[in-house]
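INTERNAL AUDIT FORM
Audit reference: QA-55
Scope: verify that the stored structure record matches its stored sequence.
Auditor: D.O.
Record contents follow.
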Amino acid sequence: MSPRNGQVSALVALITNAAKTVEAHYAKSSKPYVPSLDDLTPHPLDSEISSPELREAIQTLEGACAQLCATVARPNHTVLNKLMQIYEPGCLHVAITFKIPDILLEQPEGLHISEIGRKTGVDEEKLGRILRLLASRHLFREVKPDIFANNRLSLQLLSTNPLNGLAFHFTDENNKAVTVLPDVLANPEWGSSHSAAHSAWNKSTGYPEPLFNWFEGATPEGANQGARFGLGMIGWGNAIEAGGVVTGFPWKELPPGSTVCDVGGGVGNISMQLAKAYPQLQLKLQDTHDRIMQAQTEVWPKEVPEAIAEQRIEFKAIDFFTEPPIKGCDIYYLKNIVHDWPTNECIKILSGVRHAMKPTSRVLIQEYVLQRANRVAENESAFIQAPEPLLPNYGVGRIRQYNLDLDMMVMLNGKERTLEEFLKLGEESGLSFVKLWEVGELGVVEFRLSA
């Protein structure tokens, strides 16, 4: 069999073996089965950090299934389907705007579109067509003609789920901004600009300052979007298993009383996990004034009240472009911060951290570390490459990092970075590279003070 003819069989073999790995992993859990999409009961593995074996198997499945379909179908068939995916975000935006998952939660067996239309005030015929598209994409299910119900995926869009806030971000302000990206790229001034005020989002809204200024209450609408984005970051962290850093980095080896400063930590999703797992740590949470107030008065009293009572957490607002974080901490932790900003702004942030560090301090930057899509010799790659004939970066299996890279471009003129780009940022900020930690979907780049 020639290599070309064998590619389909090779992809099918990868899918088969990965599926067996997933089934075996689920068989070892307290509910020893892979749940159906129609199962509304949470599975224990839904809230656990995936093992490296399970994560790789799922990435292989996603990448190989997509690559197989793209390989065997006519090119125009595949491209047309990709072009028409534009409608899914709009339909999702309708679903969360009118709280359809919440409405269906009251009727697990399903609800007719006439009743959903009555409760939402939306035309039932149009609503049914929107829900049918989503059901065909495995969000919701049509149990009988024009009767729709929740499934495992639509439950993630409940208004009480933090992922709901992120869903609004992507289907609302982000979705509107990406439509003007070609106009921005073609603009002689903005196309080559890396200013956080020259993004596609700025173009779509007409707002002249960076996105986070808008989130900080430039208008009531901006403040509302900022608050839901803050909660959405909890959903984001849960979905990408950012909590892998809680067990993947040796926090327990730090001496009791060690201080960890979560710089730009929003409402403190990771800090809350650290507070629960390592009560010997002293935590400092720093972000903009509004996010710190939200964390201090709403989120932490509900989620980790014991950390407040035991004085293990300090809340302090910061403008990390003009002032350093709290001085003398043992660890300065920045998750999904550097990617928000162009290079010059990143150097300002990291230089401020450097000024706050003591000689033994370490900086941990947790973000995607971008892998290119071309295959290289194994000794030339910082990553384990996917088995052939998969793309070496797993293709669709790891597509989220490239989607987020474009999100950063569209919203802030920021970017995800390769390891080489992180090392250059550190060097220009007076920091020396120590180690790349693999803690799941994201990487953690560790720095120390330069000698």
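Auditor finding: record pair retrieved intact. The two ends are 58 Å apart (CA to CA).
Action required: none
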